Amino acid sequence: MAQKRVIVVGGGLAGLSAAMKLAEDGIPVDLFSLVPVKRSHSVCAQGGINACNEVARQQGYSEWEHFEETVLGGDFLANQPPVYEMAKMAPDVINLLDRMGVPFNRTAEGFRDLRLFGGSLYKRTHFAGATTGQQLLYALDEQCRRWEAAGLITKYEFWDFLSPVLSDNGVCSGIVAQDLRTMQIRAFRGDAVIIASGGNGLIFGQSTMSVICSGSAAARCYTAGARLGNPEFMQVHPTAIPGEDKCRLMSESARGEGGRIWVPKKKGDARHANDIPEGERDYFLERIYPKYKNIVPRDIATREIFYICEQGYGVGNGQMVYLDLTEKATGIKYEVLKKKLGGILEIYEKFVGVDPLHEPMKIYPAVHYAMGGLWVDFAKDGRPVEQGGGGMEKGNPRNQMTNIPGLYAAGEADFQYHGANRLGANSLLSCIFTGLFMGPSVKKYLSDVQKGSAADVNAFVYETRLKDQQKKYETLLKASGDQNPYLIHRELGKSMSDNCTIIRVNKRMKVTLALIDELKNRYQTRLGMPDGSTWTNQTLTFARATGDMLLLSEAITKAAIARDESRGAHFKVPDDKADRHDIPLDERAFQRDDANWLKTTLVTYKDQRAELSYEPVDTSLVKPRPRTYGKTAAVK
Amino acid sequence: MTVPQTQNQPPIVFNIKRQDKPDSMPYWQTFSVPYRPNMNVTSVLQYISAYPQTAEGEKTAPINYDVACLEEVCGSCTMLINGVARQACSALIDQMRGEKGAEATITIEPMSKFPVVRDLIVDRTRMFENLKRIKGWIPVDGYYNLGAGPKIEPRKQDSLYALSRCMTCGCCLEACPQFTLENAFVGAQIFSQVRYFNMHPTGKVDADERMEVMMGDGGITDCGNAQNCVKVCPKEIPLTESIGWIGRKATVYAVKEFLVK
């Protein structure tokens, strides 16, 4: 019998950690990526990675607290056993990264340094300057290079995943992919396929994500029958530099290290920020959340920033607030912050031309992270928590598997760990955790698949899927209409950004949904391909992804329209209150509604449409409670 | 096709070097792009994708270029901008206009030290292959939980971190007079990475094997010490220090080998 192989799609933190873990077990891996894996979007992560540690533990923190913060941060929408398992394994993940050479910041004595991050009152975030994602990605990239040299990992970089291949009995048995240089399309056999393709921020036009994050790989599984979970939950990060090509993230670590958010008390104050005296500044997050101050969870900080700007207090009456790292505001010396936050300070200085340690940064929220994604399963460890249970059952093949047998998902591409809102510095953890944890599960799946392994699947099945994709490619290549794919994408992005982000109102989202329909129609009937080349044609790749983004947008928008409540990042105002700026934002909106909406949204692609259904959330470990973060009463 | 209007500023003129295939002849095209505040070279390329026509009004294919993060951390969008190797995302138009005047033409070309794939896309496989040759990894004993890594003093962490920010962009190699399309020279990127791995308490287990590569064909003796590399490194990695470090270690290694043999 042929050696069983695994295909991994995506070479960020999740894909690489899955690949190296499988390789360690002697399983050959074919690794597909749009870009050299070292350039994956994980490289952009800045602030750090969370885990319980000895210092925090001696102050009363534990893996349980980490778990609890994460489900509370996610407004109780996440299934609890997987989150608990992640929090339990987090310290081991950090140790492994440490051994692999990640240059974590150190204390004077040489221990790993820690910083404060959103949604926690304990220092439990490990970091490498302000380019932690880059450093983690490089360490994993290095390990995969090691396995590549040893012949167990084969990389297919500059390849576009086009579709999974399902056998006649519906088992995922490989993929079809395209070489983006030669444009050759090929089918690959694989006994299990892991989708670790990241998020889909490109749908919103500008986001903090890399421009490769279109969500197309997940969309192509969705059209092949994989369900989406909670696609309506998109994180809008409170602090980014607005931009036309992208919004550049200013890490939460800026606030974790003492950075403060404020606006002038006087509307439209035209003075330079440094000339506004302390008493004339409104540090509104500190005023409203005296306990958590500037490190309330992201969805909350984002809405407060939106609201203060809506009331006319934004810098220069606009949509902008100050993020202040100057010594005057923080009391922290220049050199200290330079060392801890160098990476992001450089970004601000390079792109805005101002040293943020000398004058406050001007920032505004931007689309940042997809909590939702491909729905994946888990097997619960039924033992009581006291006996080591409560989390996931190690090595059970169901863990991280989509509803298509043999098709797995991990990292930002899955929906499992962050509920309705992700806490800062939990994404790097969830990506690496899922990659590592699923290794034994996938291995078990491979050993269970006796008959019907990919080598036994009829070649005809692969040829058929290959021909489908070849035909789709040729149709796109010949498209001769008047609609440029980049312009279709811009229209989509603008509407999604305007109507489906911080504040959601059904009547506005319905406008977006109608536009999506219209764009789909234009895409199908009037698309024009401005490049007819059959060699390295990026326009074609983008046009194909545009079709996928339209499908995902529909799923996001439909699910958001249906969910008549506010939970985490999904914050909905009823139609009749949409323009009632006289009512405080929180009172304007729907409240969280556990009786009707404590459930996971499932989206299935049926008759070329997004069809919604729901399943209950596993809240077996902590009972849902109100999520206030000690908010003080509104001052009129 | 309606093209958006310029805002009170003359349009920016770009001369872009294009090439359809690896073996075809390069050619130049001129593009006129409406000015907008805070533009970078990436947003210019994005504009051309949406409105793909030359300054003369001729329809053309959008320009192909490597791109991902747009915040100068992934290394993808490295190209020659006004003759200098740098990332398109952090090449700000206002700054370049400030230097050259609003009417100045901006030229964009693919890097010249790597084979062209199409337009501005070049093949940088050589950089990644060299990382494999030098065993560019920490040889850990597998991925099971074996406790924490070695304790590291903060000053050492500072040095390691500075070296570990290399994004494999290729600027140092493009600027290097010794590094050519034809030869085997590994260049500053690799010298610096060897130093990084050899400095690490676990990484140094493979130090000798890395030094073998450094002593071999295309290794440290081929470095002409022009010091161009350090001037163009966007991450300000101390590349010349790394070259000096490798040089010193190479001498020690050579003497040691001599004595052993």
Q: What is this structure's SSE topology?
A:
The complex is a heterodimer of chains A (about 625) and B (about 260).
Chain A: E1 6-9, H1 13-24, E2 29-33, E3 49-50, H2 54-58, H3 63-73, H4 80-99, E4 114-115, E5 125-126, H5 132-149, E6 153-157, E7 159-166, E8 172-179, E9 185-189, E10 192-195, H6 216-223, E11 228-229, E12 234-241, E13 248-249, H7 253-256, E14 260-264, E15 281-282, H8 284-288, H9 298-310, E16 321-324, H10 327-330, H11 334-352, E17 361-370, E18 373-374, E19 407-409, H12 427-448, H13 459-478, H14 485-499, H15 506-526, H16 538-562, H17 585-588, H18 594-597, E20 599-606, E21 609-616
Parallel strand pairs in A: 1-2, 1-10, 2-6, 10-19
Antiparallel strand pairs in A: 3-5, 4-5, 7-8, 8-9, 11-18, 11-20, 12-13, 12-17, 14-15, 14-16, 16-17, 20-21
Helix pairs in contact in A: 1-5, 1-12, 3-4, 4-12, 6-16, 14-15, 14-16, 15-16
Chain B: E1 12-18, E2 27-33, H1 41-50, E3 78-81, E4 84-87, H2 93-100, E5 106-109, E6 116-118, E7 121-122, H3 125-133, H4 154-163, H5 171-175, H6 188-199, H7 207-215, H8 228-232, H9 239-260
Parallel strand pairs in B: 1-5
Antiparallel strand pairs in B: 1-2, 3-4, 3-5, 6-7
Describe what you observe in this structure.
The complex is a heterodimer of chains A (636) and B (261). Chain A has helices at 13-24, 54-58, 63-73, 80-99, 132-149, 216-223, 253-256, 284-288, 298-310, 327-330, 334-352, 427-448, 459-478, 485-499, 506-526, 538-562, 585-588, 594-597; strands at residues 6-9, 29-33, 49-50, 114-115, 125-126, 153-157, 159-166, 172-179, 185-189, 192-195, 228-229, 234-241, 248-249, 260-264, 281-282, 321-324, 361-370, 373-374, 407-409, 599-606, 609-616. Chain A is an alpha+beta fold and 636 residues long. A six-stranded antiparallel sheet of chain A has the order 13-12-17-16-14-15. A five-stranded parallel sheet of chain A has the order 6-2-1-10-19. Chain A has a four-stranded antiparallel sheet with strand order 18-11-20-21. In chain A, helix 1 runs parallel beside helix 5, helix 4 crosses helix 12 (427-448) and helix 15 runs antiparallel to helix 16 (538-562). Chain B is of the alpha+beta class. Chain B is built from nine helices and seven strands. In chain B, strand 6 and strand 7 form a beta hairpin. The N and C termini of chain B lie far apart (74 Å). The mean pLDDT of chain B is 95. Classes of the chains: A alpha+beta (636), B alpha+beta (261). The interface between A and B is large, with 73 and 71 residues.
